[in-house]
Amino acid sequence: MPRVVIAGCGDVGSALASCLVARGWQVYGLRRDVARLPEGVLPIAADLCAAERPADWPEKVDYLVFCPAAGKRDAELYQRLYVQGLENVIGWLGQDKKNLRHLLQVSSTGVYAQQDGEWVSENSRAEAASETGKALLAAEDVALRSGVPASVVRLAGIYGPGRNRLIEQARAGMTVPAEPPQYTNRIHRDDAVGLLEHLLLQAEARELLAPCYLGVDDEPAALHEVVQWLREQVGAEARADGPGSTRVGSKRCSNALARETGWAPQYPTYREGYAALLGQ
Description:
The protein is an alpha/beta fold. The chain has helices spanning about 10-20, 75-95, 130-145, 165-170, 190-205, 225-235, 255-260, 270-280, and strands spanning about 5, 25-30, 40-45, 65, 100-110, 120, 150-155, 155-160, 185, 185-190, 210-215, 220, 250-255.
């Protein structure tokens, strides 16, 4: 059976782990608190920021998924977790590095600095303006120059179970200016997991993967439209003293390349995704 290490087995990583366990894969989950790993996942208790190879590291690894979550936007933390952390994990492969079939490094559409509503694809310039975005670009460089087959998956804003912030803001009467439109890109947690699973299955089938994919739904949307739709669903009125948008930048990301591989989102727009959340 294929062996995969999911380094940074948090929300997305744990959901992916459960999917792969159900397929009969041997799944290792790396995180500091291994008591929170899903059933059937073999634990690797480790800190990605520590250089020493974990005692539980498996002898053979076919696939590596690097998907930690920083928890806060801090440039120094991003550098240690995403850049040095990935360097550590690749180092832990040791001589087994030559046998690795594929590395998936989870990144973010935050690496793009476009802010005038431009359409963005994998071939668009990635010139992150923020220090955290620059750290993510540096981590992508580590992955793609690692000497192993690798793909970067740039995920848009993830929403889903436990990620209800925008719903709560809409319920509190959030207002967003309609002009100029602030285009946003998002992906449901289950679709992000589905894309990662799909790419691993493609690699297992010996399909050639591209160096980069954008993980977004089918419809970039102006934030004021999303918020207005959510207010209507929860029966809230716009309020002058409601939360305002602190968002900067505006771009529209295309998932055309990911779709060309045969992947399709279960929640193609924010409407289906948020409706499912509200139904729960």
